[in-house]
Amino acid sequence: MIPILRKTALALASVLAANATFAQQTTTRTNRKGDTVTDTRSFQNGQYTNDRTVTTPDGKTHTNDYTASRNANGRLVTSDTRTGVNGKTYSRSTTHGPYGNRTTVTGPNGNSRTYRRRK
Question: Which run of H or E residues covers position 17?
Fold first, then answer.
């Protein structure tokens, strides 16, 4: 597993375990390229959500929606949906288990594939 994703998953797991609640929070900033980036974060009822929208100076927009929650077995489940400027969508859902992770990836053409990674 990519080290950054592992750290993110562990951080989200600890946040979810703490059972804290905060209202929706929206931040808007401009990056070095001149893109306007809007982040909307929330944590309610055990579910963390981060919706990011990036608008380029020429008006093109792409989005990234990230969600983390726990399933019925108490396992952390993360999902990430990205939509490009061309309108094509890519999604990934990962269930984090004690012995490894199961990730299902769906491409812009609707085809999906499941990967299992042992720890």
Answer: helix 3-18
d(CA 97, CA 38): 32
Span 70-89, pLDDT tens digits: 999 899 999 999 999 889 99
The type of residue at 73 is N
Q: For residue 59, which amino acid is it?
A: G
Question: With contact defined as beta carbons under 8 Å apart, do 104 and 92 qualify?
Answer: yes
Count CB-CB contacts under 10 A for residue 12.
20
Full-model pTM: 0.72
Q: Which two tokens stand for residue 5?
A: 């994703």
Model confidence pLDDT, tens digit, residues 48-66: 999 999 999 999 999 999 9
Report the C-alpha gap between 89 and 52 in whole angstroms. 14
